[in-house]
C-alpha cells in the first residue's frame, strides 16, 4: 500500500462540525488505550500523524484524516475508560453513536481489540450493535508483538471462540512490527470499494 498523502483534516464533536461527506470513511473504535491511534499511524506509515499516549483516554474528539485524497480515516475516542466521569463517558458514547449511525459516507468500522485480552460481553454487545445498525466491522487484534507466532494463533482462536465468529475474521496486527498491515489494508479497501491504489510495494514511504 503506497501512501502518497495523509493529512489531518479536522476534529469534531457534533455533526455540524464533521468535514463535508465526500469520500468513503472508515472509523477506528475500541477500548481506551488499546492502540487505535498507533494502528492508524502504522497503516499510514506516519509515526506521529495521530497523537498516541500511554495515558488512556487521550483521544477525546472525532479526528478526521484524509488518505491519498481517496478515503478518510476517523480516529474515535476509546470507550470504557474508568477514570473519566460518568457524564464524560456518556457524552463520548453519544458522540460516537451519533457519528456511526448518521454518517452517510461511513463504509465500516475497524474494531480494535488487544490480542492479549479475551473479549467478553461488552465486545459481543458492540458487535451485535454494529450488526443491528448494518455497519460492516473489521476486527483487528493488536499488540501481537507481545507474543510468539504460535501463541498469537492460540489467542486468535480463543478470541474467535469468545466472539462466536470464524477465526479468519480476526486480523492479527502489530503497530510496532507492521505485522498484518497489508491484510488489514486489503479489507479496508474492499469495504471502501477502492482498488486503484493497491498495486506496487511500498518500500519507498
Ligand atoms: N507493543 C505494542 N504497543 C502498542 C501497540 N499499539 C499501541 N501500543 C502502545 O499502547 C499505548 C496506547 O496506544 P494508543 O495508540 O495511544 O491507544 P489509543 O487506543 O489510541 O488510546 P486512547 O486514544 O487513549 O483511547 C501506547 O503506549 C502505545 O505505544 C502495538 O502494536 N504493540
Ligand atoms: Mg487514541
TrEMBL record:
Span of the signal peptide: none
Keywords: Cell cycle, Cell division, GTP-binding, Magnesium, Metal-binding, Nucleotide-binding, Septation
Gene Ontology CC terms, in alphabetical order: cytosol
UniProt-listed GO biological process terms: division septum assembly
Domain of life: Bacteria
Cofactor(s) essential for the protein: Mg(2+)
Statement: the UniProt record of this protein carries the keyword Cell membrane: no
Transmembrane region(s): none
Pfam families, per database record: MMR_HSR1
Gene Ontology MF terms in the entry: GTP binding; metal ion binding
Positions of the EngB-type G domain: 22-194
Function: Necessary for normal cell division and for the maintenance of normal septation.
Family recorded in the similarity comment: Belongs to the TRAFAC class TrmE-Era-EngA-EngB-Septin-like GTPase superfamily. EngB GTPase family.
PANTHER family: ENGB-TYPE G DOMAIN-CONTAINING PROTEIN (PTHR11649:SF13), MSS1/TRME-RELATED GTP-BINDING PROTEIN (PTHR11649)
Protein's name according to its UniProt entry: Probable GTP-binding protein EngB
Amino acid at each position: 500500500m503506497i501512501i502518497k498523502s495523509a493529512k489531518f483534516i479536522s476534529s469534531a464533536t457534533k455533526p455540524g462540525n464533521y468535514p463535508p461527506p465526500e469520500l468513503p470513511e472508515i472509523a477506528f473504535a475500541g477500548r481506551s488505550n488499546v492502540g487505535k491511534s498507533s494502528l492508524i499511524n502504522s497503516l499510514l506509515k506516519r509515526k506521529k500523524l495521530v497523537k498516541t499516549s500511554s495515558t488512556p483516554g487521550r483521544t477525546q474528539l472525532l479526528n478526521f484524516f484524509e488518505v491519498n485524497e481517496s478515503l478518510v480515516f476517523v480516529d474515535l475516542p476509546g470507550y470504557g475508560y474508568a477514570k473519566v466521569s460518568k457524564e464524560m463517558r456518556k457524552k463520548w458514547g453519544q458522540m460516537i453513536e451519533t457519528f456511526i449511525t448518521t454518517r452517510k459516507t461511513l463504509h465500516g468500522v475497524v474494531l480494535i481489540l488487544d490480542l492479549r485480552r479475551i473479549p467478553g460481553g461488552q465486545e459481543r454487545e458492540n458487535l451485535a450493535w454494529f450488526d443491528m445498525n448494518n455497519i460492516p466491522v473489521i476486527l483487528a487484534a493488536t499488540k501481537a508483538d507481545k507474543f510468539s507466532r504460535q501463541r498469537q494463533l492460540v489467542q486468535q482462536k480463543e478470541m474467535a471462540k469468545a466472539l462466536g465468529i470464524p477465526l479468519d475474521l480476526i486480523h492479527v496486527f502489530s503497530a510496532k512490527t507492521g505485522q498484518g498491515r497489508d491484510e488489514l489494508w486489503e479489507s479496508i479497501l474492499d469495504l471502501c470499494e477502492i482498488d486503484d491504489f493497491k498495486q506496487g510495494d511500498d518500500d519507498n514511504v
